[in-house]
């Protein structure tokens, strides 16, 4: 499932070869720790975008997409199941659930909560018949803030005390942007969206704290107004951008070296546009080190049955 | 502070005289119980709208408004402190806080949470220097789901384990509606907005359940699109309407007999437009009977320093 290494350019990071989690633990920096140390975090596994795996992925129904993921297919889900809402997953033990829900309420741009399960339940009102333990392309398993595994099936790690939070994903509003004529460069280029840890701290909640993570899309100036307007009408999937232009305004040194996902090629006049990102709870897990957490792998989202239109506010 | 009884018409309920809470407990139905029994709930205290008390109430700064309320002024706050965000208050013991926050997440139209305090704290990031125990016009005190008092100062009832939820109020978007030319009839008529308990059940959360409450504004057909659009752009203060037209669609028998607030006179062509209302948590308190809760009195809101524009999504 590795993505072929792209032709090297100054702006591109070579694709990593697949590594076992144990290899990461032995010789690699931890994802956030590496970043804070001046290194970049390393994904354990790099999957090909599903729109490259199957040119018809945009037409998969959410039920069909989930069945494929349950069967083991993995990869970034940008462009999959047109018009259906994608969500981030963060599952924490019940004694961390109030703080996680409060963290989300206090940081609604990165963490718009679309559903919360009862403890131990792997079902959600957003997708009838789905199993949150198996129906995502790939998971990340965290122990005391350290990434310990990236399985495609999380049943071996499931706990009866897990409360799962489903958080809106910006892949959802890409259909609205595309409909308004905004080019989605990372989809055009067959890559995962680039994501960056910023220097903006979230408002903490109890034991949970951490920096805001953003996704970035290069937008031509002529399309900037539409990109802001169309995403703004979908606050449940992060809404309008949190920043446009100079990445140093968010403490990002090099757009060519994202903390998660792939670098994307921009046209000369493009403006980098930054949206709050649902990987933010993972950054909070890394910084706050709860004993256990289960999340999606960045860019590899849960496909719900909800339609984007259900979340459009006007 | 009683509102003078309006000239009786078929559509109007005579204003009630002020009654002591004990009188209500002795001879009146409880607010929700009465409704469910086929009676209408009775407010304990009826205050005059503050725009009638002071014709310049729209120009009060939030700081000034809170100081007046702290000094004892009471009354509905529609039209007070133009352009500033008003919020509902619901305070519950800490062991009910997760369920209340989850109830709000699961019912985002009636319960958009704008801030949550730490247990025992009476301060909020939304209003520097404010005291949630004193700075609302009037409170309601609930024990086991029964209304026991309506003080203008809640310090005698304060508990160290109270977690306070501040929930967006539709009075906030009335400025946007007025700016778009929509007449706000209850403000024009110097009355509190009418509110109704509906037959729509909220999605429960643990021990918390109850019906959705709505506010109603009669809107001329020519202004309906603007009313829907302008409120929709402010989802943090209930967003777009949940229903328009025939009140029986929400199980409301008689618009002239609201469950909270005052009846409002409509013009012949007006369409009744219903927005989800932040009194919904009070209906949940009545139905779910937590041992203790402290809320605002319906229509008598907390004035924050936040500007409506901060919550406009596009």
UniProtKB/TrEMBL annotation, chains A, B:
PANTHER family: D-GLUTAMATE CYCLASE, MITOCHONDRIAL (PTHR32022:SF10). GO terms for molecular function: lyase activity. It comes from Streptomyces phaeofaciens. Residues 9-21, 36-47 have a biased composition (Basic and acidic residues). InterPro entries: D-Glu_cyclase, Putative_hydro-lyase, UPF0317. Residues 1-47 are annotated as: Disordered. Keywords: Lyase. Belongs to the D-glutamate cyclase family. Its EC number is 4.2.1.-. This is Putative hydro-lyase GCM10010226_23480. It comes from the Bacteria. Pfam families: D-Glu_cyclase.
